[in-house]
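Entry 14. Structure prediction run on the chain below.
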Amino acid sequence: GDNEPLTFEDLPTKPPLVGRPRITDEIQQAIALLVGWDETTRRILRCSPSGILYIGSPRVKAIINFQADGDGDDYQGNDIKTSEVLIKAKTDNEGDIWVNVGVAAAVDTGYPLDAGEWVNFSINNLHTLHLHFTKDDDWVNIIYSI
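Output returned:
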Protein backbone atom coordinates (compact mmCIF):
# COMPACT_ATOMS: atom_id res chain seq x y z
CA GLY A 1 0.00 0.00 0.00
CA ASP A 2 0.84 3.64 0.54
CA ASN A 3 1.54 4.12 -3.18
CA GLU A 4 5.03 2.67 -2.76
CA PRO A 5 7.15 2.41 -5.91
CA LEU A 6 7.26 -1.05 -7.48
CA THR A 7 9.89 -1.91 -10.09
CA PHE A 8 10.55 -4.95 -12.27
CA GLU A 9 13.95 -4.97 -13.95
CA ASP A 10 12.95 -7.75 -16.37
CA LEU A 11 9.58 -6.29 -17.48
CA PRO A 12 9.90 -4.60 -20.88
CA THR A 13 7.61 -1.56 -21.15
CA LYS A 14 6.96 0.80 -24.05
CA PRO A 15 7.75 3.57 -23.62
CA PRO A 16 10.37 2.64 -21.02
CA LEU A 17 9.48 3.60 -17.44
CA VAL A 18 11.46 6.51 -16.07
CA GLY A 19 12.34 6.52 -12.38
CA ARG A 20 10.15 4.51 -10.03
CA PRO A 21 6.48 5.00 -10.95
CA ARG A 22 3.89 5.04 -8.17
CA ILE A 23 1.53 2.05 -8.20
CA THR A 24 -1.96 1.97 -6.67
CA ASP A 25 -3.15 -0.83 -4.37
CA GLU A 26 -5.37 -2.17 -7.16
CA ILE A 27 -2.49 -2.39 -9.61
CA GLN A 28 -0.30 -4.03 -6.96
CA GLN A 29 -2.96 -6.72 -6.49
CA ALA A 30 -3.14 -7.32 -10.25
CA ILE A 31 0.66 -7.52 -10.50
CA ALA A 32 0.75 -9.98 -7.59
CA LEU A 33 -1.25 -12.39 -9.77
CA LEU A 34 1.25 -12.08 -12.62
CA VAL A 35 4.54 -12.58 -10.80
CA GLY A 36 6.32 -15.29 -8.88
CA TRP A 37 8.10 -14.79 -5.57
CA ASP A 38 11.36 -16.63 -4.79
CA GLU A 39 11.55 -15.31 -1.20
CA THR A 40 14.02 -12.64 -2.33
CA THR A 41 12.52 -10.83 -5.30
CA ARG A 42 9.52 -10.75 -7.61
CA ARG A 43 9.97 -12.55 -10.93
CA ILE A 44 7.77 -12.00 -13.96
CA LEU A 45 6.02 -15.16 -15.16
CA ARG A 46 6.44 -15.76 -18.89
CA CYS A 47 4.13 -17.64 -21.22
CA SER A 48 3.74 -18.62 -24.85
CA PRO A 49 1.43 -16.65 -27.20
CA SER A 50 -1.26 -19.24 -26.46
CA GLY A 51 -0.99 -18.58 -22.71
CA ILE A 52 0.98 -21.65 -21.64
CA LEU A 53 3.50 -20.95 -18.88
CA TYR A 54 7.10 -21.71 -19.74
CA ILE A 55 8.70 -24.30 -17.51
CA GLY A 56 12.39 -24.71 -17.95
CA SER A 57 15.79 -23.74 -16.78
CA PRO A 58 16.79 -20.09 -16.71
CA ARG A 59 19.52 -18.73 -18.96
CA VAL A 60 23.10 -19.47 -17.96
CA LYS A 61 24.87 -16.38 -16.60
CA ALA A 62 28.41 -17.74 -16.38
CA ILE A 63 30.62 -20.78 -15.82
CA ILE A 64 33.31 -20.90 -13.16
CA ASN A 65 36.09 -23.51 -13.31
CA PHE A 66 37.84 -23.87 -9.96
CA GLN A 67 40.89 -26.00 -9.13
CA ALA A 68 41.81 -26.98 -5.58
CA ASP A 69 45.09 -25.55 -4.33
CA GLY A 70 46.02 -28.29 -1.87
CA ASP A 71 44.30 -31.09 0.04
CA GLY A 72 41.46 -29.67 2.13
CA ASP A 73 41.03 -26.51 0.02
CA ASP A 74 37.74 -24.64 0.42
CA TYR A 75 35.73 -22.48 -1.97
CA GLN A 76 32.91 -20.01 -1.29
CA GLY A 77 31.07 -18.30 -4.12
CA ASN A 78 31.14 -14.55 -4.67
CA ASP A 79 28.22 -12.25 -3.90
CA ILE A 80 26.33 -12.86 -7.18
CA LYS A 81 22.54 -13.15 -7.50
CA THR A 82 21.54 -16.53 -8.93
CA SER A 83 18.48 -18.68 -9.36
CA GLU A 84 20.09 -22.07 -9.96
CA VAL A 85 23.57 -23.54 -9.78
CA LEU A 86 24.94 -26.80 -11.19
CA ILE A 87 28.17 -28.16 -9.69
CA LYS A 88 30.06 -30.89 -11.56
CA ALA A 89 33.21 -32.68 -10.44
CA LYS A 90 35.63 -33.35 -13.30
CA THR A 91 35.81 -36.96 -14.44
CA ASP A 92 39.52 -37.38 -13.63
CA ASN A 93 39.34 -36.04 -10.05
CA GLU A 94 41.01 -38.22 -7.43
CA GLY A 95 39.08 -37.14 -4.34
CA ASP A 96 35.61 -36.08 -3.27
CA ILE A 97 34.21 -32.57 -3.40
CA TRP A 98 31.81 -31.82 -0.56
CA VAL A 99 29.04 -29.35 -1.44
CA ASN A 100 27.01 -27.38 1.10
CA VAL A 101 24.64 -24.42 1.01
CA GLY A 102 24.55 -21.72 3.67
CA VAL A 103 27.31 -23.16 5.86
CA ALA A 104 30.86 -24.36 5.29
CA ALA A 105 31.35 -27.72 3.60
CA ALA A 106 33.68 -30.31 5.09
CA VAL A 107 34.21 -34.06 4.98
CA ASP A 108 30.87 -35.58 6.05
CA THR A 109 29.25 -32.12 6.06
CA GLY A 110 27.26 -31.53 2.90
CA TYR A 111 26.76 -33.61 -0.22
CA PRO A 112 29.74 -35.55 -1.64
CA LEU A 113 30.54 -35.51 -5.35
CA ASP A 114 32.72 -38.29 -6.71
CA ALA A 115 34.60 -37.83 -9.99
CA GLY A 116 32.16 -37.04 -12.80
CA GLU A 117 29.13 -36.56 -10.55
CA TRP A 118 27.01 -33.42 -10.48
CA VAL A 119 24.30 -31.78 -8.40
CA ASN A 120 21.86 -28.94 -9.11
CA PHE A 121 20.41 -26.51 -6.52
CA SER A 122 18.07 -23.53 -6.52
CA ILE A 123 19.81 -20.75 -4.58
CA ASN A 124 19.40 -16.97 -4.55
CA ASN A 125 23.07 -16.01 -4.22
CA LEU A 126 26.27 -17.77 -5.23
CA HIS A 127 27.80 -16.60 -1.93
CA THR A 128 25.79 -19.33 -0.15
CA LEU A 129 27.63 -22.07 -2.09
CA HIS A 130 30.46 -23.76 -0.17
CA LEU A 131 32.79 -26.47 -1.50
CA HIS A 132 35.45 -28.56 0.24
CA PHE A 133 38.06 -30.45 -1.81
CA THR A 134 39.69 -33.54 -0.32
CA LYS A 135 42.50 -33.70 -2.93
CA ASP A 136 44.90 -31.16 -4.41
CA ASP A 137 44.42 -30.25 -8.09
CA ASP A 138 40.83 -31.57 -8.32
CA TRP A 139 38.52 -29.44 -10.45
CA VAL A 140 34.89 -28.40 -10.28
CA ASN A 141 32.70 -26.71 -12.90
CA ILE A 142 30.12 -24.29 -11.49
CA ILE A 143 27.38 -23.24 -13.91
CA TYR A 144 24.97 -20.63 -12.58
CA SER A 145 21.94 -18.81 -13.90
CA ILE A 146 19.89 -15.76 -13.02
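The mean pLDDT is 85.
Filed with the rest of this week's runs.
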